[in-house]
Design brief:
about 475 residues, alpha+beta, Outer membrane efflux proteins (OEP), four-stranded antiparallel sheet, 4 strands
Amino acid sequence: MVSSRAKRLVATAVAFVLATPLSGCFLPNDDVPAGIAIPGRYRAGPLQADSALPSVVWWRGFGSKELSDLIEEALTSNFDIAAAVARIVQADANSRIVGSALLPVVDLNASALRSRASQSGGAGGRSERITYSGSLSASYEIDFWGKNRAALRSAEELAVATRFDREVVALTTVVSVANTYFQVLAAQDRLRIARDNLAAATRVYNLVKQRFDVGTASALDTAQQESVVNIQRAAIPPLEQVVQQNIATLAVLIGRTPESIRVHGGSMARVRIPPVTPGLPSDLIAQRPDIREAEAQLASAGADVYSARAAFFPTIQLTGEGGYQSAVLKTLLRPESAFYNVAAGLTQPLFDGLRLQGQLDLRIGQQDELLQLYRKAIVSGFADVERALIAVQQTIRLVRLQDDVVTSTRRAFEITETRLREGTVDLTTVLINQQALFNAQDTLANNQLSRLNAVVGLFQALGGGWQKPRPDVPKDTPKDGPA
């Protein structure tokens, strides 16, 4: 007979063995704050910050119907967006798969068995038997500790993250279409400038040639101006290449082959600059889909940590089976043919080579990694808006200043061209002024493209206005209004 002291020692040892793995379960809450200080306003934003958000169809503010048609076609036909939607379907299916652990598994079983015993041993009696059976079997794991519910929550948060990922892909696609379209417009503008400059250089060359014919200009003067003409002529093919290549890129973005797309383009001068209100920094966390995606992934990791902790607890499994079994088919469904069995099992991990502890440490490490990525996404979002605001302000200013440069250099070139006709200016002065004009015009076109890209970048940094849709943008938008 075992003494009471020995019983107490055995109970203490069992309690210690059970308490060791379970001790990891009693830890603080899995909800981890980001720990990021939210600024009251953007440094480069307006002094009086407001909570206005961009329109959901913000690209219409540029006033280009062709651009709007391209973007709206891309939203329905882009392959990357379609792939993101497919990932949503996969994540939803995975959630259903994981959630099935919370429900019992029920199977219908039916069989007919015919058997014949060996007669070689001299055994008598009936040599053949037929057994019919039909039954229902069920098994269910009691999720007493919430392990399966936490796994389902993790899968559901990942499904939410895929939806935000789809918004990220859609916003990136819209921005890519807009920037590529503006690249086409900029190349067309620069192409027109190059052709106009070629015509101007040709006019000057003809004047120099006439002076050379009458002996008032040297062969060097003619060769220098001819070089300018050739340089301007050589600048045209690369710009034509840029136009065609960007049109091909647009075709891929809208899910079509290059030969099936026609882009008329136009000029950046006819594109409106829509005003953009950055709103409050506190709104950015809810506006940016990439931040919301990182938040959902962090929540999923928190659920994984909870599930890994719950794995230290015992697993309680219920199984049952009931049905009918008979050697004669016509008596199969009689009460005397009924049978059933019910079982309950409990499994407590005691020693697994620290596998469960390793899984918990892995989940905690993944949660910490996603926490840092979530914090980085928030800080990066604020920095993106600041950079975009600075870019919009400076490019608008730069375009205005460069426009003054073009105006003054054009006036200087026109004066020198007139005096060249009169024979009162040397060719060196003409060469300097025409090169200054050509460079100033090309720089202005590049600055206008930078201004459009900066405005698009600000819309992207603000999340594109996807969360609070508005039906339309204002129709009367100033052409060069402040962003």
